[in-house]
Specification:
Layout: E1 14-18, E2 26-27, E3 32-36, E4 39-44, E5 49-50, H1 52-60, E6 65-69, H2 73-89, H3 95-115, H4 120-139, H5 143-150, H6 157-174, H7 180-191, H8 202-205, H9 213-219, H10 222-233, H11 241-246, H12 267-282, H13 293-301, H14 309-319, H15 321-326
Antiparallel strand pairs: 1-6, 2-5, 3-4
The structure holds fe (ii) ion.
Length: about 325
């Protein structure tokens, strides 16, 4: 079965994938590798069906993660996209595994969206992903706990977008938004909230020191640019523009781009603002150490009425240990 061995184990050349993303009896168009000692070896060549026997063989050897060559990344992503709905709805899979698969799929997708934000296929995939995530959140008993557990705390624009989407959906559901269509609308906007940043020069985005006024003026345009990009494909609900345009608005009118406040900000805008700031503060960036959840929340409370107090209170309660434990 092992027909070739790589002398170097360079996982950078491979994607790590969950065994559970592979559907039994499906024919894969990518090779599957496993780790054997310090080598990456071929387990199953492309075009051969992946059988229950293959799966059992792996499980008997305690293998639940496999590797796919980065050269086959597109094929694997296509496979995952076509199967995500079934995987996420599969009650035989543990919720923690389903959460991990949702998160991994989202990372691939976000890379594509930020690479080509006006490609219709990418936006449609974004909507499908949000739909699967909403389905998962609404049907799984501990979806929130599991999604929070798999969230990456190493900051990247991609993981940040997924985290903001996840936290926004969780908060909305926590405060009583139960309608799947409303959750999908919010989630899609939250996932795409920062796509306008694709128009900002990377040197400004990665700048570690304070921004000049001119640079700040550019940054402040990303909510509007994000809406402009969304309009180009015209594939998302008009209400999904709200998280994009309003996620930097603040209750006390100190935000941008329109410096609106209070009731002028839609609930979707208020929710995304909380999720955005919380995630930015609690994930590790190159130039800033992450702070724990409670100091981050404390700082948000102290920001002189920047956030909706009721929603911030609900968010704090939602992240509280009692609540998370009771749902696990
Ligand atoms: Fe933003």
């Amino acid at each position: 079965m092992e027909k070739s061995a790589h002398t170097e184990r360079r996982t950078g050349q491979y994607l790590t994938i969950y065994l559970d993303t592979l559907r039994i009896d499906s024919v894969l168009d990518f090779d599957l590798y496993i780790i054997n000692g310090s080598n990456v070896v071929l387990f199953r060549a492309a075009k051969l069906p992946f059988t229950e026997r293959n799966r059992q063989q792996l499980l008997e050897n305690r293998v639940n993660m496999l590797y796919v060559s980065r050269l086959d990344q597109q094929s694997y992503q296509r496979y995952l996209k076509n199967n995500l709905k079934n995987i996420v709805a599969d009650v035989n899979l543990e919720e923690s595994v389903r959460a991990g698969i949702v998160y991994e799929s989202a990372k691939f997708l976000l890379e594509d969206i930020f690479d080509r934000p006006t490609l219709s296929e990418n936006i449609c995939r974004g909507k499908e992903l949000v739909s699967s995530t909403v389905g998962f959140i609404l049907t799984a008993d501990s979806a929130l706990t599991n999604l929070l557990n798999v969230m990456s705390f190493n900051y990247s624009t991609y993981t940040h977008s997924i985290n903001v989407c996840t936290l926004s959906l969780a908060l909305a559901q926590f405060v009583g938004v139960k309608n799947p269509s409303d959750l999908r609308t919010l989630g899609t906007g939250a996932l795409l909230h920062d796509i306008g940043k694709t128009k900002i020069d990377i040197s400004i985005l990665n700048k570690t020191g304070p921004l000049t006024n001119a640079e700040m003026d550019i940054v402040r345009q990303h909510p509007q640019w994000g809406c402009d990009l969304a309009k180009e494909t015209d594939l998302i609900d008009r209400e999904s523009y709200i998280p994009i345009i309003q996620h930097h608005e603040r209750e006390n009118e100190s935000g941008y781009p329109h410096a609106i406040g209070g009731k002028q900000i839609h609930m979707y805008g208020k929710i995304t603002a909380i999720a955005d700031v919380f995630d930015a503060m609690t994930t590790q960036r190159v130039y800033r150490n992450a702070v724990d959840a409670y100091p981050a929340l404390k700082e948000m409370y102290e920001d002189r009425g920047a956030f909706d107090p009721e929603l911030l209170g609900a968010f704090t309660k939602m992240l509280g240990p009692t609540n998370l434990n009771s749902s696990s």
